[in-house]
Design a protein that fits this description.
Length: 426
């Protein structure tokens, strides 16, 4: 969450920064009103505590002299009851302030394009030339059905729409890709983790999925557990409520995990194939850095996500997202989009975000500055490195052959047991 002091001191400036991100700017005014009520309750409570302390001294002095202390004792009881009421009020107001703060998105960094949606995103880079086909390229769902490697009907029979059953070399390709990604990121200095596939409500609040995106999550009935929507959640929450040593930073971690999302509000989009699924695999990158290092680390994380596409020789472009198109927790975000021949266009395959101290405040993740000895909030960054299913799509479409087979990218051949071509699954 953003620092409440920033809202109190610069409410108008914060409103302007969030004009494309916050649907109800009046919530900031309400935060200020409630916080002032909380301050008033605190001041009154402090006053009563001082009165109580003084009267308690009078009681002690009266008893020491053998006098009657019944009246001042009654007054202390009255003050105690009034103080208890004030303390309850203070806690209730504080809870209301926090509930509103949890719904306020991160403030965009300077230089992030102004705009309410994807139409204001700015392309900053392209790499690779889209392949020119001498035949009409097929979409991945037709390629995979002819090869017998993806089964959409049986996936739907097992679990419903938005789930896919992989067969044979389709399974092998998916596994090859996430192993290749993990090895590549490990060689770049990321420590691999194997994370739980279920996460608590506290963890989801820490990274910003709750309470804002409750409807997009799969919750276990009767449990404070949710199916993991992204490995960003368990990786970031490893250090929730901890103070790290400055010498430990930056911390770079990566993990493969299946992700589970209801995709609420996206019905009708990418309904065929595996571009948009309720369950999909992803390799995630997460960093914890000092504030002064996060911008540099953001750039290197982007390069690390791009590296996977370069090694697979898949054309892509990079966009810097507008203020209104960024994720809730991001202060600056790049999207990496891979070329898909069936669309004749690019499709998102990774988002790389710098969250500054937004998640660290929610999850209470700090480091101790060596020069001062004082704890400060870390900056957190996250990115897909990459979405595995969409990488399968890109490989199938970009490497398809006239006979229906698919060439295996050279970097993946060792992970496919030396197989260089995917042919019809027998």
């Amino acid at each position: 969450m953003i620092d409440v002091k920033l809202i109190l001191d610069q409410a108008d400036a914060v409103k302007e920064k969030l004009k494309f991100r916050l649907k109800d700017p009046s919530s900031l005014d309400r935060i200020c009103e409630l916080y002032n009520e909380k301050r008033a309750a605190q001041a009154k409570a402090d006053q009563l505590r001082n009165q109580k302390k003084l009267i308690s001294r009078e009681i002690g002095a009266a008893k020491a002299k053998g006098g009657d202390a019944s009246e001042p004792m009654k007054k202390v009881d009255e003050l105690s009851r009034e103080l208890e009421t004030l303390e309850t009020t203070e806690k209730e107001i504080g809870a209301k302030v926090e509930a509103l703060l949890l719904l306020v998105p991160n403030i965009p960094q300077d230089g992030v394009p102004a705009g309410a949606d994807e139409s204001s995103n700015q392309e900053i880079k392209r790499w690779g030339e889209p392949r020119r086909f001498d035949f009409k390229p097929l979409p991945h769902f037709e390629i995979s059905e002819k090869l017998g490697i993806l089964d959409f009907e049986r996936g739907a029979k097992i679990s419903g729409s938005g789930f896919t059953l992989y067969h044979g070399l389709g399974s092998r390709l998916e596994r090859a890709l996430f192993n290749f990604m993990l090895d590549t990121h490990g060689a770049s200095g990321y420590e691999e983790k194997f994370v739980p596939f279920m996460v608590s409500g506290e963890s989801l609040r820490g990274t910003g999925q709750l309470p804002k995106f409750q409807e997009d999550l799969y919750k276990l009935e009767g449990e404070n557990l949710y199916m993991n929507p992204t490995a960003e959640v368990p990786l970031t929450n490893m250090y929730r409520d901890e103070i790290l040593a400055e010498s430990e930073l930056p911390i770079r971690v990566t993990a493969y995990a299946p992700s589970f999302r209801k995709e609420a509000g996206s019905y009708g989009k990418d309904t065929r194939g595996i571009i948009r699924q309720h369950q999909f695999n992803k390799v995630e990158l997460v960093k914890f850095t000092r504030p002064e290092d996060s911008e540099t680390e953001h750039q290197t994380m982007l390069e690390e996500a791009e590296k996977i596409l370069k090694l697979l020789n898949l054309p892509y472009r990079v966009l810097i997202l507008s203020q209104g198109d960024m994720g809730f927790s991001a202060s600056k975000c790049y999207d990496v989009e891979v070329w898909l021949p069936s669309l004749g266009n690019y499709k998102e395959i990774s988002s790389v975000s710098n969250c500054l101290d937004f998640q660290a405040r929610r999850a209470n993740i700090k480091f101790r500055r060596e020069s001062t000895g004082k704890p400060e909030f870390v900056h957190t960054l996250n990115g897909s490195g990459l979405a595995v299913g969409r990488t399968v799509v890109a490989v199938l479409e970009n490497y398809q052959q006239p006979d229906g087979s698919v060439i295996v990218p050279e970097a993946l051949v060792p992970y496919m047991g030396g197989l260089k071509r995917i042919e019809k699954n027998k």
